[in-house]
Amino acid sequence: MLILKTILAIATAYAIIWTLYLLVFPLAASLWHRRGRASQRQPSQAGTILAIFVPAWNAARVIVPCVDALRACPSPMEHMTIYVLADHCTDDTATCAEAAGATVLTRQHGPRGKTYTIAWGIETLTQRGIQPDLYVIVDATTQVKPGFLAAMAQCWQQGEDIIASRATVSAANQQWYARCLSFMLVHRNLQGWCRERLGLSAWLEGRGMAYSREYIERFGWQLALPTGLQASHPTEDWRHGVRAVEEGYRVAFAPDAIVVSPLRNTLLEATKQGARWERGRLINALTHAWRLLCHGIQQRKPIKVVAALDAMQPPVALLGAFAACIALLALVFPSLNRLGVWAFAPLILVCLYGFIVAIRGCREGLQFFTILWAPLYIIWRCISFVLGWVFFDRFSSFKSLKPSNRRLS
After folding, report:
1. What is the per-residue pLDDT across 154-203, written as a single tens digit (0 to 9) for each?
2. How far is CA 160 from CA 198, 214, 242, 265, 277, in A?
């Protein structure tokens, strides 16, 4: 009995710590923020060059709206080229992209995947003697808002080397899980906004991101490439962000660089994607994030410590389920509860944070009643977590940490 009481007390303390972690940043950001930075980069005599990469695999159905949105987006940089990286396509992606006005780079050799394709695209431009001042990367399934490029360029002019966009879910996808995922993105954007105000590093948003020439010249796409854990997975961008912070960089958050994603159209597809997300999250947390945390503590650098904790923190849905289970156990088995009313603190704090996210989401046009789906959403995300860990990955995945030697072309 004593062991069970101790386990419940430890679990309660764990949940309280992480729920407070969610709440402390909005509170701190509302009370204090760093001063704005003046422009630090000046265009050369030849003018600034912007290269937009759109990695695409069999994206004929979606590539034209993506390119059209980018072409309609005003660019403050003198020279802009949209490169559609057609990766092992077997459909009309290249033809459709060219008709829409993009420059198509076709790739048929080497391992398929977004990470390898971007690395190949950077190498291709380098071989052609093209040196963009800013590399912007946008998923083929997304569409950007008109101020996207201007917001990215502004951050770049202020001296930022890595810039994350603000992701939203397309209003056309009215599935209940898509609406719930909209609030999940509101949560991420809220935390990104907080970290930007506090001068910390935000989460890297792979649907839309940007890198300076200085960063690419130093690392290329090396920090995003696999390190033996897996060939490719959807959280490779988060992993890239963690490794970049480890090298001394900061991921800036551009709240006005809005990218709209349709997400998955069916529950089965969304579940599979969620399982892959959780798998990648766990791999990242147990390897790169843990190493970054140790370095941050040794070097006494808060930006590294926070970035590592961001990569290690449990998903909000899982934290909500955990808090609810603790409260339920405290009610059903009061003899196990050594903390009294404190056993209900995690659930109260999660609900408080959820209310903050819901209010912010409503300000962005989301419907408040969507939070009624929260219990079902939490169950669904927990299932994705179990699938991602039990069925899609094993501890054997962590045997090799050596950089991959796969050829890009």
Report:
1. 999 999 999 999 999 988 888 888 888 899 999 999 999 999 999 999 99
2. 15, 10, 16, 35, 27
Which stretches of the chain drop beneath a pLDDT of 70?
Answer: 1, 35-39, 42-46, 227-234, 388-409
Give buried/exposed letters for 362-391 (b at 16+ CB in 10 A, else e).
Answer: beeebeeebbeebeebbebbbebbebbeee
Token pair of 194 as six digits: 């907080």
Tokens of 204: 């890297």
Domain ranges (residues) in the chain: 2-29+307-397, 49-296
* 60 residue type, one letter: A
pTM to 2 decimals? 0.89
pLDDT value of position 262: 87
The number of beta carbons lying within 10 Å of the beta carbon of residue 227 is 15
3-state secondary structure of 24: helix
pLDDT tens track for 69-82:
999 999 888 899 99
Please say whether the beta carbons of 198 and 124 come within 8 A. no
How far out from the chain centre does Cα 309 lie? 14
Contact 141, 173 (CB under 8 A): no
Strand, coil or helix: 266 = coil
Contact 85, 54 (CB under 8 A): yes
Q: Which CATH class is domain 49-296?
A: alpha beta
Closest CA to 165 of 200, 99, 199, 210: 210
Contact 344, 330 (CB under 8 A): yes
- What one-character-per-residue DSSP string does 274-297 give? HHHHHHHHHHHIIIIIHHHHHHHH
Whole-angstrom distance, CA of residue 233 vs CA of residue 309: 21
Let me know how long the chain is: 409
